[in-house]
Write a structure and sequence with these properties.
The complex is a heterotrimer of chains A (339), B (312) and C (344). Helix content of chain B is 68%, strand content 0%. Chain B is mainly alpha-helical and 312 residues long. The chains are: A alpha/beta (339), B mainly alpha (312), C mainly alpha (344).
């Protein structure tokens, strides 16, 4: 059947540098009061097989970005520009049907842990299979009953679920089990890129760890790139190779996780890391002053400066300060928060 | 905290004029609500002008010759009524125009009385059921379910048939309110159940505010759009029930309410006689009332559920 | 011990609870019908008989016999509880006593035929309206549907606001009176008697088209609106977004995800709407002089035939309760989250 054939062809042809490249992606919302730039020109690159995390406060645009990568942005939002290049094709350039085919096949979504992302009235096995059905190019290539059972069992096994789960309905599963099913679905067609939007946010800590391990294991097995959206810095540090920090719809810093954590170059990142409680730090919690920016009619200059009460009129350059390490280089606030 | 004004939203208080402008702008974006209100405004104008300029007492039978088409000469009053009546007369000599002018406010009155009582009783019961839960909820919910399954009109028929003297207009309002409280009770109860779980209620409860206080100060204001929509719905079903009862012949016989006019139309087979001036106006007015109420409900629904906005 | 277990299983069983509800409805309704007349005075029916006699109706002759039979049957001298007991016993056997207007004909003989006509008309109308309305609503609520559908359906949706009988009056005027396409009244052509023949069935259908159209057209909008609302709400649901992320085909998203979920509250609404459909159809039957329950009820009200009214209302409530029960009991087949075992 086609999935088996595809597996080999993907792995042999995968170029190690393919992965995903995002260039100047913009997502705008048209409101009666003006334009809200939820994602304002984000660019980054991820190699095949690498893991990147995107962190930021609520309202920083992380989830909007995740949806945009899948081209799932819904009205009143719209993708206002940029490129999303996966395996040498710009997803934003494809027509509706081509994009539909790309979803699950090349780019797959692992939805938020808090979501009820499974259809309440369908059995799990059917939800594992229907994505595969709708991606068959050859309509006559139907799966026999045995093949169906085989695929379902294989998928469930890959996420450490018992075969009996296939006959159950979503409401009979726990949160962790449902997320595993979501992971099984997302990896069923061996995608090139996995977008995981806060996959463990509503789960308790022990389950979180298990689910993340499963996700990581599968991702490695597929040699897929994964973009993990989240706000749990601890999780991020353990899981990812790279981390990107978002603020006010813009990427302010992106780089290897160890470097960014040990010596952050952007003031916002600095404050974010400082606000993390550690076992040794018995002092008061340090928050970040001010309120998150209003994305309505956000001016061109440095968004973080605005937060601390300064104004920078011109657009801040996106500078490469080290290997794979980029920051919004605003001279005015660069030293804020340094000891 | 000095933050640039360019970056924050302007939360200063709006003047009344500004609020009015906002309201008008919203109405333009929400055509259902606008058209609904417009229809009622038109009816209101019609009645007001009618009472000011027309001899409304001619709603009584034998005010003129029977079966006159509009503007047909009235042989019983050849001098004063050479040009007949604007909407003609019915089989029993009523001036149809006068009947319309007098009947509209009566029918609306019944609807309003029943609707208001219905929504008050319904809201109180809904709050009690949803907030206190437990067996109170069980009992009230079961009563509401029974009330929804048994068509209230049937019970109203039983009541009406047994009243020797027939119902006056206010009495109809009262009787109909007995069925108008059921649906609001159900919808508001589900809303309160949702709200009860929300954080601000928890906080109020934890800070020691009494149950009643929470219900009035915290929940009620947030429920305003739903209660508004339910009120409109309640009035609509009240008018529906009352017109239905009257058309069956169980209403106030001497009043020119719209339902009674329909009743007489059926009794005297006005359609078979082609008396379009007699059955046309009440149908038109009733259609305006119902469509108006319906559009207002749709409009209020859209206001309270922003997800439905921006659809036709 | 085993008995206690069985008992607890039965009591929590969904079907059993719905059945209890069904009985509760019948009990409350029949008690209300019993009590309401007695609230106004001692002997409401006898007073009614006197009223009719005053109006010089056709009952003058049988008045004495009727009063005698009535007293015998209901034992008005006996205490209220006993009267109630007799009343309930009669109801259970569907014995509604004699008609007042057509004494000594029994109520059942008068109601009997009308039930079939009304049942036929209403079941077809409800099915058609629900089916067409739900499909229309589903299409309206689907963002990928063509835009012109919105303009086509808006007028039909507003028709939902007006009661069936208003539409009936308009339809009769246009199509029966002016255009003469359909007969003005009746269930079948005037001089004929009911029989099982093609021509008779043809007549029935021809006569039923206008009344059925009024009911279907006026109730379509309600179903469409409800379905549309549910579809719109579903669009924002997490599982819809996740399903779209799976790259599923539009048709699959529409049927298996959106419609399949939206239809659940629609079905619940169906159960609740049955009462409204019936009461709306009463006047439609009156206007068309359709030989159904509605018309019989109307005549009985005019003639103050309380036993017929009472019997009819009881039958209607039993039928509605039964239909609601059947719909309730089949609901778990649609929604796997509601199980037969638990409280439901």
């Amino acid at each position: 059947m086609t999935t088996a054939k595809k597996a080999t062809s993907k792995k042999t042809s995968s170029n190690n540098s393919a992965g995903i490249t995002v260039e100047d992606l913009k997502v705008h919302y048209d409101t009666p009061d003006g334009v809200v730039k939820a994602v304002d020109g984000v660019s980054f690159s991820l190699r095949q097989g690498e893991r990147m995390a995107l962190v930021g406060e609520s309202g920083s645009g992380k989830s909007t970005l995740a949806m945009a990568l899948m081209r799932l942005t819904r009205a009143p939002g719209r993708i206002a520009g940029g490129k999303v290049i996966v395996g040498s094709r710009d997803l934003l350039d494809l027509d509706e049907e081509e994009m539909r085919f790309q979803r699950l096949n090349e780019v797959a979504l692992v939805p938020q842990g808090a979501m009820n992302s499974l259809n309440p009235v369908m059995k799990i096995k059917n939800q594992l299979l229907d994505g595969l059905y709708d991606h068959q190019k050859d309509k006559d290539d139907k799966l026999s009953k045995e093949e169906q059972v085989e695929i379902v069992e294989k998928l469930l096994k890959s996420v450490d679920l018992a075969p009996g789960v296939a006959e159950m309905y979503p409401h009979e599963l726990s949160g962790g089990m449902k997320q595993r099913v979501a992971i099984a679905i997302a990896t069923s067609m061996e995608p090139r890129v996995i977008v995981a939007d806060e996959p463990t946010s509503a789960l308790d800590v022990v389950v979180q760890r298990n689910v993340m391990q499963t996700l990581g294991r599968l991702q490695e097995g597929l040699h897929a790139s994964i973009i993990l959206i989240g706000h749990d810095m601890g999780l991020v540090a353990q899981f990812s190779d790279h981390v990107g920090v978002m603020y006010a719809g813009r990427l302010v810093e992106v780089g290897p996780v160890k470097t960014v954590f040990k010596s952050p170059k952007h003031p916002y990142t600095r404050l974010l890391i400082k606000s993390l409680p550690t076992l040794s730090n018995k002092k008061d919690f340090i928050g970040i002053p001010g309120l998150p920016a209003s994305l309505l009619n956000l001016p061109e200059g440095c968004a973080f400066c605005l937060r601390i009460g300064q104004v920078t009129p011109t657009k801040i350059p996106w500078v490469n300060v080290a290997k794979d390490h980029f920051i919004q280089d605003c001279k005015k606030c660069a030293d804020y928060g340094k000891k | 905290m000095a933050t640039s004004t360019a970056n924050t939203q302007d939360f200063t208080k709006k003047s009344f004029k500004r609020r009015l402008e906002d309201f008008w702008r919203y109405v333009k974006r929400n055509p259902s609500l606008g058209v609904g209100l417009g229809l009622f405004f038109a009816l209101f104008l019609f009645v007001a002008i009618g009472y000011a300029t027309y001899e409304v007492e001619r709603y009584r039978p034998l005010s003129g010759g029977p079966d006159l088409a509009p503007f047909e000469k009235d042989s019983y009053n050849p001098v004063t009524r050479a040009n007949g009546y604007i909407l003609g007369t019915d089989r029993q000599g009523r001036d149809v125009m006068a009947v319309m002018i007098a009947g509209i406010p009566l029918t609306l009155q019944i609807g309003l009385i029943a609707g208001l009582i219905g929504i008050t009783v319904g809201t109180i019961l809904a709050f009690m059921a949803a907030y206190y839960g437990g067996w109170i909820d069980q009992v009230i919910s079961t009563i509401v379910d029974v009330g929804l399954t048994i068509p209230g009109i049937l019970i109203l028929i039983v009541i009406a048939v047994n009243l020797q003297s027939g119902l006056s207009v206010p009495q109809m309002g009262l009787a109909v309110s007995a069925v108008a409280w059921v649906w609001p009770a159900r919808t508001i109860r589900s809303q309160v159940l949702v709200m009860r779980e929300q954080l601000y209620v928890e906080i109020a409860r934890l800070s020691g505010t009494s149950g009643f206080s929470i219900m009035f100060k915290e929940m009620l204001p947030n429920l305003a759009p739903y209660i508004g929509a339910s009120l409109v719905g309640s009035v609509a079903s009240a008018i529906l029930a009352s017109v239905g009862l009257e058309a069956l012949g169980l209403g106030p016989f001497d009043s020119p309410t719209l339902g009674m006019t329909i009743y007489w139309n059926i009794q005297f087979s006005s359609i078979l006689h082609g008396m379009w001036w007699w059955f046309g106006p009440p149908i038109l007015v009733l259609a305006m009332i119902f469509v108006g109420l319906f559009l207002m409900t749709a409009g209020l629904d859209e206001w309270s559920n922003p997800r439905l906005r921006k659809r036709v | 011990m085993a008995i206690k277990n069985i008992l607890s299983i039965i009591v929590t069983n969904y079907v059993f609870r719905r059945f209890l509800f069904f009985l509760l409805i019948i009990w409350i309704a029949s008690t209300a019908i019993f009590l309401i007349p007695r609230l106004s005075g001692q002997d409401p029916v006898k007073e009614k008989l006197l009223l009719e006699a005053q109006r010089g109706g056709h009952m003058q002759a049988g008045l004495e016999e009727m009063a005698a039979e009535y007293s015998r049957k209901f034992g008005l001298d006996k205490p209220l509880i006993v009267q109630y007991g007799n009343y309930m016993a009669d109801l259970v056997r569907f014995d509604f006593g004699p008609s007042i207007a057509y004494f000594p004909k029994s109520v059942n003989s008068l109601i009997g035929d009308s039930v079939v006509w009304t049942f036929g008309l209403l079941s077809v109308c409800t099915f058609l309206a629900f089916f067409i309305g739900t499909i229309a609503g589903a299409l309206l609520g689907w963002p990928k549907s063509p835009n012109f559908l919105q303009y086509v359906f808006m007028p039909i949706l507003t028709l939902a606001a007006i009661p069936y009988y208003l539409l009936a009056l308009v339809l009769i005027y246009i199509f029966a009176f002016n255009l003469d396409w359909f007969p003005l009244f009746g269930g079948y052509a005037v001089a004929n008697l009911p029989e099982w023949s093609f021509s008779f069935v043809g007549q029935v259908i021809h006569h039923a088209i206008l009344p059925a159209s009024s009911i279907v057209l006026a109730s379509l909008g309600f179903w469409a609106l409800g379905m549309r609302g549910m579809m719109v709400t579903n669009q924002g649901e997490d599982f819809m977004i996740a399903a779209e992320a799976k790259g599923l085909r539009s048709t699959r998203l529409f049927f298996n995800y959106a419609v399949r979920n939206a239809i659940l509250p629609q079905t619940t609404a169906l159960a609740l709407s049955l009462g409204t459909v019936f009461t709306g159809s009463v006047l439609v039957e009156v206007i068309f002089r359709y030989p159904g329950l509605g018309n019989t009820l109307y005549q009985a009200i005019k003639l103050n035939d309380f036993f017929v009214i009472r019997g009819m209302i009881f039958i209607v409530i039993v039928t509605l309760g039964l239909a609601t029960f059947i719909i309730d009991v089949t609901y778990p087949l649609l929604d796997p989250r509601v199980s037969y075992k638990k409280g439901g």
